[in-house]
């Protein structure tokens, strides 16, 4: 790449980064979203209720978001999700189906073990300050392989190969937290605790998310998706 082209690329990146930072700063300081567009929840409580109602439709096999071509042109102009879902990368967990929502309704962050790292936190900050989400849901699920691998790692006092220790170390606090009480189902208890701990991370991480939560603009919750039944149990 020529020197002038390289300078131009760096300049454009700098402008983008600066513009994004200003947008987030302005949104965070005012803690005021633009008026919600038609059909989008106006409050954090309404956002969670919409997720619960959507899951009820999913369980009943009565979806109302079956035609994904509807609104395609409008979506090309920008996104307006009403909630963010931090969920596992497990291929059986599909938030848009589980909550019967259409494209553009949910801002989904996926990582094996549904924990919030620095990248996930930054994504949630963007969703809150720029996109105007009303709720953050950390969604664990039954038979989670990442949580199970963490339990086995602790019991065997070994670490898995490659980069997998990063997953284990992220989930480890939840496992240790519940092991002391010797639950009948350690996997289920650790999965629930992991979702709850990360929902707390979303609610208390400053400066952006903590401020939105303190003002009641956004709420964070934890839930467990039962793969066998389709039901989401809010914790």
UniProtKB/TrEMBL annotation:
Q: What is its EC number?
A: 4.2.1.1
The UniProt keyword set, sorted, is: Lyase, Metal-binding, Signal, Zinc
State if Signal is listed as a keyword: yes
Against SUPFAM superfamilies, the record matches this protein to: beta-carbonic anhydrase, cab
Report the domain of life of the source organism. Bacteria
**Which transformation does this protein catalyse, written as a reaction?**
hydrogencarbonate + H(+) = CO2 + H2O
Q: Which GO terms describe its biological process?
A: carbon utilization
> How is this protein named in the record?
carbonic anhydrase
Annotated organism of origin: Ancylobacter aquaticus
